[in-house]
Amino acid sequence: MAAADKTSARELWQKLFEVGRILKVDHGIHPGDIGGHRPREVVATVSVDSVEQVQDVVRAATQIGARLYPLSTGANWGMGSRFPVVEGCTVLDLSAMTRIRELDLEHGYAVIEPGVTQAQLAKALEGSEWVLNVTSSCADTSMVGNALERGDGIIRSRVQDTLAVEVVLGNGELLTTGGLDGRSRYHGRVAGPDLTAAFVESNLGVVTAMVVSLVRRPETTELVYACFRPEAFPEVADAVARLGRAGLPTDGLLRLRGSVVPAGPHALPDTPDSGLLSMTVPLLGRKETVQLSRRLIREALESVPDVVSFRSVDAATVEEDDALYFRARMALGIPTCASLRRGLGVPNCDVEDTELAWLMFLPLVPLDREHMVRAVDVLRRAVDRHTTALTAEFNIVSPHIANMVVQIAFSRTPESTARAHALRDEIRTHFADEGFPAYRSNIDHMGTELALRRDALIAPLADLKQLFDPSGVISPGRYLNGSAK
Question: What CATH class does 220-326+337-440 carry?
Answer without folding.
Answer: alpha beta
